[in-house]
Amino acid sequence: GNHELYSSVNLATHYLGLAVKNGTASYDGLTEFKYCDALVQQNENLYPYHLTGFNAIPRVMFWLRKSLAAGQSAAKNVINNFESRERGKCSACNASEDEAAAGKKFLRCGRCKLYHYCSKECQMKAWNAGHKVDCKSVYC
């Protein structure tokens, strides 16, 4: 049943995570890529609405970029998909770039480089609401 599937995903995430963090991953970025897939599945199973403070996507993006740098070209499509979902909207208040003040450029999280904010206030609101935990757990 679902319990066995969740257990398998959790185990896969754990062991792939150990491999990438300990530097025993494949030289071509495949282990990092598989780790990202397992993290996304685990994140969807546990927190389907991407709860702030429990969101693995910043970590996924970190390891996808590592995978791409190691030669795993499939990572580029996944990175583009995540970036296109987040582009053009404030991650805190969901305002679109069109709704923001004319000529005002959105701020981007300097750490995960994925989430965008219409103002410094929204960026701080998201950081304090849990994005800090998501971003700082990138290396975990």
Number of helices: 5
Strand percentage lies at under 5%
What is the average of the pLDDT values?
82
Note the overall shape: globular
Number of extended strands: 2
Largest sheet, strands/sense/barrel: 2 strands, antiparallel
Low-confidence stretches: none
Q: Give the strand order of the largest sheet, numbering strands 1, 2, ... along the chain.
A: 1-2
Rg estimate, integer Å: 16 Å
H/E series, N to C? HHHHEEH
The structure class reads mainly alpha
The helicity comes to 55-70%
Question: Alpha-carbon distance between the termini?
Answer: 29 Å
Short descriptors:
single chain; 140 residues; mainly alpha; two-stranded antiparallel ribbon; 5 helices; 2 strands; 3% strand
Describe the structure.
By secondary structure, this protein is mainly α. 57% of the residues lie in helices and 3% in strands. It has 5 helices and 2 strands. Strands 1-2 form a two-stranded antiparallel sheet. Strand 1 (107-108) and strand 2 (116-117) form a beta hairpin. The chain is globular. The model has no long low-confidence stretch (mean pLDDT 82).
Brief sketch in words of this structure:
The protein is mostly helical and 140 residues long. It is 57% helix and 3% strand.
